[in-house]
Amino acid sequence: MARLHIIIAPDPRLKARAEPVEKVDAEVLALMDDMAEAMYAANGIGLAAPQVGVLRRVIVVDVSRTEEDAQLLRMANPEIIWASEEEELREEGCLSLPEQYADVLRPTQVKVRYLDHQNEVRELEADDILSVCIQHEMDHLEGTLFVDHISMIRRKMILKKLQKSQKAVGVAT
Ligand code: NI
Question: Are 28 and 22 in contact (CB under 8 A)?
Answer without folding.
Answer: no
